[in-house]
Amino acid sequence: MGGTRTRKNSSCRLGGVxxxxxxxxxxxxxxxxxxxxxxxxxxxxxxxxxxxxxxxSSIRSSAAAGSNRSIRTQVPPVANVVSAVNSPAPxxxxxAISATSYGLNAMAWYACIVAHTVKGKxxxxxxxxxxxxxxxxxxxxxxxxxxxxxxxxxxxxPVQETDSPEGIERLEKPPAPGSPPQYTKVFAxxxxxxxxxxxxxxxxxxxxxGGTGLQKLADERPEQYYDVGIAEQxxxxxxxxxxxxxxxxxxxxxxxxxxxxxxxxxxDVCLQELDVTFAMDRAGLVGDxxxxxxxxxxxxxxxxxxxxxxxxxxxxxxLVHMLHTAIAHDGPAALRYPRGAAEGVExxxxxxxxxxxxxxxxxxxxRVALLGYGYGVTVALEAAxxxxxxxxxATVADARFAKPLDGPLSERLARDHDLLVTIEENVLAGGFGxxxxxxxxxxxxxxxxxxxxxxxxxxxDRFVTHGxxxxxxxxxxxxxxxxxxxxxxxxxxxxxxxxxxID
Length: 503
What we know:
27% of the residues lie in helices and 20% in strands. It is of the alpha/beta class. Helix 11 (375-389) links the parallel strand 18 (367-372) and strand 19. The protein is globular.
């Protein structure tokens, strides 16, 4: 970033934070307005981020009236170096504000405060080797530090969760040989393949290269990759600009952090119907990262927005197909997929296009239909297997799309069954189940008795704590056993014993 940038305005905002003046204007100064002058020149030298703040002086202005009044500012060439530390991401927390106006009788200047964040500040092992040490202690486990020192028995293991620089995330325990691949790894490889097929495909992330898997794209096709730093709004805005120029950008951002860019999603992408794909990793419950990282709301915050297509894969093969479909789609599209291991199905040699808005029936049954979305399909299949042990053959379907919803499929399931269960890993309010229920209310408005009762299964209306995903899903009732139990309880007309009797 070369040169000095100066700005004069009625307010001063830098890095999204405005601070009060750092120095009081003398009491004998009469303020009748404000003029602000500040200058900052970030420069990069040998890997060190040197922030240079130039002193800003407000020179006495002529006491003119009406349109003839003027305000003059002067920026001396002398620069004050306020910080020069080895930090890749300094955070500006204060700005200079000099309040002057016509009638100013004194000179005042103010400083710009630049704070550099240092992970693990005060803990020597975390500060010792820069980024390597920061990553080693990124997610310290209990008993790994005793009396301010690392314990020999608990040597830290690098855990790549959120802002990892690694090519592909590594979970707490490495996958066993022969186990299914991580969804992140499948997405990463599919993205590289898409970029190789079409050089208009551009991967964009916001300081989540490792966590989203886009580091693989950065390594293999760097000219088709951007990391904008911790600035999700900027990532989406960049994607909209690239789309306007004919590119096919893919924003790979965690579900929970994409919330930050809601305004840009609405106004800069969906309103203009731009060809942008949102790949939302960590959709659903993510585990030990806790409520700040659970992807519990993306279906709900995307559903009300016009022009966007929403989809979720039930397995890794479907993820490959859906990424291909989203990129080929002429308009905004968003796909969500969970963190962790996939289902273990065979990956396709070539991706296929999926008809937009069409679900798929996986098993035909009677009286009860289980309609899953994303991870909800896995839960539906598990519940169906348990129900079969009780003599109930349930229909299982994969919605695939939350918007546009497969209306004909939903109506058929509601018409041909006594109970329709929707299953999703999202909050119930405004989620996939709400979409199904809203559609059925309208479709059967004149004959409500002709449709099935609807039971919605999803995340509770509260912030879910941290913990292993399996434990959290059991607590939230998002397991095959919990769903089967609710089905049997709600379906007393079947005369089948409750699942509580099962060991």
